[in-house]
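Table S2 (continued). Query chain:
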Amino acid sequence: MIYLKNQPYPMNADLSGCDCCDEVEIAQLVDQGDVTQFQNLITVPVFSPQVVDDSTFSLTVGGGSPWTIVSPTWTVGGGQLCKALNGAASASQSFQLGVFVVGSYYQVTVVVDSLSGGTFDLTIGGNIFTVSTIGTFVYNILASSDGFRVFGDDDVLGCLSVAQAFEIFPQYTKVLVKDQSGVVLDEINPIDNPDDFEIIDNSITTFFDWSDFSLPDGCYRLCVADPNENTGGQNFLFNGNFDIDGFSGDEYTTGWLLTNGTGSWQITGGNLEYNSSGFGDIGLAENILTDYTPGIVYDVEVVVSAVTDTSVSVKIGTVAGPAISTVGTHNFQITPDAANLNLTVLTGGAGATSIAIDSITPTKNLITDYVGDAEGPLVKLDSYECTYLINACHNGGVAGFNFDGSFSPHLRIDGRIGRSTFPGQRITNKLSNGVYRNTFWDSEQHEQFQIGMQPPYVHSFLRMLLGYYYVAINGTRIHVHDDEYIPVYGEDDMCNAQSVLEISNHPQPDDPNITFRDCTGLDKSCANGGFLLLEQSTNYLLLQSGGRIILNP
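Corresponding output:
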């Protein structure tokens, strides 16, 4: 996962070069009714197998190519898939079926080497794309069908040299909320909380609604448990639902190292199956793409759909759950002594024996055992009446963000709005009789938005307001008039700064008006110690004890 910066709640906010930040961290303000939004980019994990057979077209039809073609209109082999004939009635397709698992996500790369006479139309897992030029094209899809199809109309000639697809796993992302001491309190994920996430193209957006958690006022952090890291198997077991078919020897595709006894393993039709005809036969299966954390408790669920004279044991390390010999859902706990998950099937009958396993799902038993792979900044949760909520969005991509969905970065700020100015233009003519006449006049009211002390990642977002198409304060659209964003630092502060934006009110119908709010007494501190907090609008340093030190008396 790529963690995007320049947003109100960035993961792994860069505080390098800020000498003060080891001592003072100014918390972001979050109201009990706020929804914290952040967006990051989905990438292919290193363990994900490539799922398109002969993705570089090295095989010919007679040499075992998995691609179905209409010859002689299409040719395949030698590194290319080509539509080689054009003319009347040559419109056709080349395709490969059984590539994608319906309901799974993939990143697909297509390289077009040559193209003339029209376009290639690609239907990839039920998603339709049109290519009109040569080049490399990357698509992120949610599969609704299993095929990879390339269409060309009558007049098209052209060749592809690459058609690759890797499974990606945004649906297994977890967002954790931790208290100030680092204890994980709760988590959300796209499967259990679909309304809290948007997965669009290569982006995943989280909408963390603080009112859903009934947390007391205090200081918290949000963290991302990245499925690409899958720390301690906390996100998912790779191919634990057995959607990727294969046999012994296909471990780098299926994720399962299958060791046959006198019987044989196969993954087919959504099941892991072992079939044998020998009494006492043993079959072994090990998941090679997911590691678990020794010493913590996992809840394990195993669903068995068929069994005959056979039992199976699930182990993590050498610690086994109970032997399973009946159809149904079986739940138990394992505290592993090593990282690997494996299965042992022991046949118990002299005749034909078999077992079919629908799924295996290990999860960490304690929410406190979840680990964040990326951490956001500190927030102070409270009920705020004296703050301004800024949000922004764009009518296209900006700063790497995807605004095709509901993403609109939100930031709650302590500050003041006022000190109006009235810039304008006027054209005046003096008539021959000495009378002045105004032929043009235009003026509008500008105000200062004075922003209190903020950490550098907040200023990285605020500077973006100069370029966003839509900016609002407390729901009313504004325009930012500054051409340059200039933070103002204290004399000895290398990190935190104040700033001022020149704004004007551009409300839409039924928007509320901006109102002046005096926020001089706001406390953003989450520390227990006695560091000094510079009040934005006074000449005082306010001590945690309530005392004051006068500056520039």
